[in-house]
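Quick sanity check, Purine nucleoside permease:
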Amino acid sequence: MAHIPTVSAQPPSSVISPKVFIISMFEPEGQVWHDNFAQSGLGNLSSQAIATPGLSMLFPRIFCTQAGTICQLTVGEGEINSAVSMTALILSSRFNLTQTYFLLAGIAGVNPRHATIGSVALARYTVQVALQYEIDPRSLPDDWPTGYIPYGRKHPFEYPCITYGTEVFELNANLRDVAYSLAQRATLVDNEEPRRYRALYSSMGTSYRMAVRPPSVVKCDSATSDVYYSGGRLAQAFENTTTLWTNGTGAYCMSAQEDSATLEVLVRAATEGLVEFGRIIAMRTGSNFDRPPPSLSDWEHLTRTDQNGFHIAISNLYNAGIEIVRGILDNWNCTFEKGIAPANYIGDIFGSLGGHPDFGFGSITGGRRLKPAATVGSASKRDEDSWGRTTLASVEMARRRQFGVKGAMKM
C-alpha cells in the first residue's frame, strides 16, 4: 500500500475554502482516496499537507488539492477521536468552511435486511444507539430481548425520558437523494468470498433478499456505537432502537462508530455560522454483516474470514464517493454553490438549528435557532431575559413530555 506523502504546508495567511471535504475515519479509508485520486482528473489530493493543532497524532495533517477545492482529513476511529479532530478542523484559521460540502465516508457493518457486503448506503439519520443503560442479559428475565434499556426507563424499547441531545441527527434528505443519484453512476466491485458468504442468507426469506444480491447503492440509516457489536439479538435491538428513536421513519442498515460524534461537532459549528448543516452527506459501505446466517452462531460469524468484504467496501467507498465529489464540482455554479434546500427538518434532537424535529419530544427552544456565542452578550438585557425565559420554559415543557411518554415498541 502506498503511503500518503508529506508535503510542506502553505503559508499560514492562505485561507482555503474547500467545495468538498472528505472525512475518513482510519488509514485505509483515507488511503484509498490518495491511491486513486490522480486518475479522477480532479487534481492531486496531496498537493497541500496542512498541519493543524488538535488533530490525531496518527493523522496530524489535512490534505488538499492545489486549488484547495477538495480536502481530506482522517479523524481517527471512535467517537472521541472523531469529535476532537473535527473540532480542530472547524476551529482552524486555515479554512473557510461556510460553503463546504462534507462527505463522511467510511466502512461499516451492514444489516442484511437492507443491503449486502460491498453496498453503499446514504443516510438521512444517524442514531447513537448505545446511549442507554446496559445490563448483562444473562441477569435479566429469559423473555427480555436485550440488556439495553433507554435512559430513565425500566424496560427495553421505550422512548428515553432523559436525552443528551446526540441521540438522533437528521440530514438534508434532498441532498441525500442527489448524492444517491450521483453514486449510482459508480461501477461497484465485488469478489468471490463475499459472494459465497451471501448465499448462506438465501434461506432467510424475502425480508433478507438484499443480502444475497450484488453490491448496490441504497438509502438507509446508520447506528453509532463505540461498541463493535455483532450478532442477531444486538443487531435487532439496535435496529428497533433506530426505528423507535426516529419515530418510525428511520431504517438502520449500517453500524458506525463516528458519525454521531462528527455530526454533533458540525451542529455546534452551524450554530456559530461556521458551516452549513444542510451540506453534509453521510455515506457508509458494508464490510461485514452485523448478524449471522442461520447455519452459524454469533461467535462463528464474527470470527469467519470468508465473509470479509473489507477490500470491496474500501474500494466502493472511493468508487461511489468520487462520483459524488465529481458531481458537486461539475454542477457547482448551477446547483451546489447556492445549496440544496432541505424539505425536511435538519439538525439534532433538541432543535438547535431551529425548526421542529420530527422525532423525539420537539424543539426545546420553541423552534428558534440557538444564537451564536458571540452575539449572546450583545443583546439587550430585556432580549436576553426573554430568550432565557422562552428557552427554560421550552426545556421544562419538553422534559414533562419526556416523562409522560407511555408507548413502547412491540417485539
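Posting the structure with no commentary besides this: Residues 6-11, 379-393, 405-411 have pLDDT under 50 and may be disordered.
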